[in-house]
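User: Here's a chain of 214 residues. Predict its fold as tokens.
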Amino acid sequence: MPIQRFVVGPMGNNTYIVFDEASKEAAIVDPAKGTGPVLVWMKSHGLLPKYVLNTHGHSDHTFDNGLAMDGADAALMIGEPDEAMLEALAEGDGWLGKPEMPSPIADAYLEHEQELVLGTTAIRVLHTPGHTPGSSCFVYEDAVLTGDTLFQGSIGRTDFPGGSMPEIVKSIETHLYTLAPETRVLPGHMEVSTINDEKRHNPFVGDGARINLS
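Assistant: Prediction complete.
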């Protein structure tokens, strides 16, 4: 399976390695605090990091950007509205402390419907604001990596600076719930789900929300 999930860090983050099996080109998605063993796993499998991708700028998803980028011929990418959070991380933002290797600045910004090529395959970028202004999701083969936008049975918080409940609902309904029902949902925390299950049962967005309001 060309996506590998690792649960790391004190906040139970899901860090993902997305890769093309033929070329061995890979993307590291959300290198959370404690990503060191993930990088060892990548090396042991001969994977070549081409991208380090942040679904959004919160420090639990970006803490080990610097470690992931160290010595790698890779491009660091994030939604432009969230880039300032990387600068704040370098000074320590109070959540997880100050990383030993601060995150570099972004090499490029993620764009809606952009395709990031890995060998003969590609990751499709979706701009999904709401949890943060720059939140992005990544579609790869039969899966979508949703960061803190959509969880199994929940959605991302919108009470942090830059969060918006109307925007996250619109993002989920417009860009995620329009994906194929069998698409696997790989969130930034907690367990894997599917688009069909979330549309039917999520209590915040979809049929589950309408049932709760009736």
